[in-house]
Amino acid sequence: MPELNVMSESPALSPAPGSGTGKPLSVTGLRKTYGGVTAVDRVSMEIAGGEFITFLGASGSGKTTTLMMIAGFCEPDSGSIVVGGRDVTRLAPQKRGLGFVFQQYLLFPHMTVWENVAFPLQLRAIPKPELRRRVGETLEMAGLSAMARRRPRELSGGQQQRVALCRALVYRPPVILMDEPLGALDKKLRDQLQTEIKRIQQELGLTVIYVTHDQEEALVLSDRIAVMRDGRIDQFDTPRELFERPRTAFVADFLGAANFLPGHLEQQASGHTLVRLDTGGVLKARPHPGAEGAPVQAAVQPGRLALGAPDDGFCSGTVESVTYVGTLVRVTVRPSGGTDTGPIRLELPAGRAPLVGERVGLTADPDDVSVFAAEGGG
Q: Which homologous superfamily is 258-373 in?
């Protein structure tokens, strides 16, 4: 598949209106119910021009329903949607001027690639010279110029998805909405298209709202991620902040499958918290408010743990399994002493794999350890 090819001698696509500045999209108090079930519950956000925003969550979290309300395919029970300063909450989809890329490509099978991309401009009665210029530039940017005369059945899945993206880009909408557009593709092709989508978005300063349930995809593409659960946003933040400074146990678990180590607050000190783990050791963590003795759970990602000598770190244990997965190994360690809280998972460079049955100690940088109140605790 050809890579994105933006020719320096060709005129560049003009940025979308309002890109890079201001707040092209404002959502306030969106709510949607189906019968007695609340699908989206008072969702609010402000999105700046040129931002790549991802709605991330499991099935039923409300991410797609929120996107459909912004697009106009689903009417909210309450709340407002403002695009470029214009309230579009009750407008039909075609009157909102937004671009939409579906997981299903929805290309017209009887039309060529050129005709598919030109179709939105024809609907808007764009003069032919301008139409030809825009379509040509958009196809060239996506590396599809040589395929302009082909029909969708003559293209690969990745090429069809790029045609769908071009069709959404060609009329320069202020916001592009994407509903799991890469979900039907294999991993290698998905990774390639992630790179292309991000490059196009940055090149044109596009404002994008993207829906996915794939954590890695969200981390790769996004400027900010709205992690959704039960119709609400659990945390809306940058990928780094979500991964390294999760505000809830759910975010820590969903965005990286953290180890949760139960224990009690032992001491509050300047710049850190000490947690007495149920396994018997003491773990130093980032500051966490709470009274001494309060039940908590410390959370640390598998990739942020390290192995040491059996007497090192916050606990010692025995290696139960070592699984090779390419550039890294996944290791489980069964802690010894105290209460058995289950194995602790680590991800280590492939060249540093321990042996099954080996006695080891576990260490962690305090800045990589979050602390949350235990369920039912203070």
A: Nucleic acid-binding proteins (2.40.50.140)
